[in-house]
Amino acid sequence: MSAVPVAETFVSVQGEGRLTGTPSWFVRLSGCNLRCAWCDTPYASWNPEKAARTLDDLVGEARRARDERGVRHAVVTGGEPMMFAIIGGRAGLVSRLRDHGLHVTIETAGTIRPPEDAPADLMSISPKLTNSTPTASQASAGGIEPAWAGAGGRHDARRLNIPVLQSLLDDYPAPGRQLKFVVSDGRDLAEIDALLSALRGWTNDDVMLMPEGVTVPTPQRRQELEAICTQRGWRYCPRLHIELFGNVRGT
Ligand code: SF4
Description:
Bound molecules: iron/sulfur cluster
Number of domains: 1
Radius of gyration: 17 Å
CATH architecture: Alpha-Beta Barrel
Shape: globular
């Protein structure tokens, strides 16, 4: 029987991106090939939980969310869901969710793809900037190997994969994609520009800037990012789930 490690499933509103505010059934797969310094789901990355769930079980739960609560959207997130071959292909998780009439979003850092494509309706790609690289002290405090930390460490070496990012842009045409960048400060802009200049086929409408942090940003911080977005023709991306619920699991 096909099974996959799952950290949590829940019904909530989508908090980020084009579908912000949309009631959705979430499945958070557990395991990640990165260790972002500011990861808000360490239980699916730094210290992944390993409860195995079968596809039948997951699809059944999503179907009940549709039938009993009127949920029409599913979000396959992580961790890094693209690590798991089981999400792709005709018999995979994404196809089976779509077979039940659900619109499916995949949330990925865009560094890896499954052997068979996952036919998502929305590919939500969040390339990781230098600000995501953990320091040695963060690695130590988080209980991960020192080899993950710092420039040239395991996280830093893996966090950008231009061929994979390009293939996602090529294979998931607009509006079925978005590029969300987590921004710590103004220094990140040059890095975003450099990355976008290495990619083809994106439009300003794909690009979203999201403030880093697990609390509601100050008005000044939001206005600074919004001004950059307006200037560039990009979108400011709030985190609605943080505003509604705080940094709480299952939301
Ligand atoms: S890619 Fe996502 S889940 Fe993985 S460490 Fe970074 S923020 Fe966490």
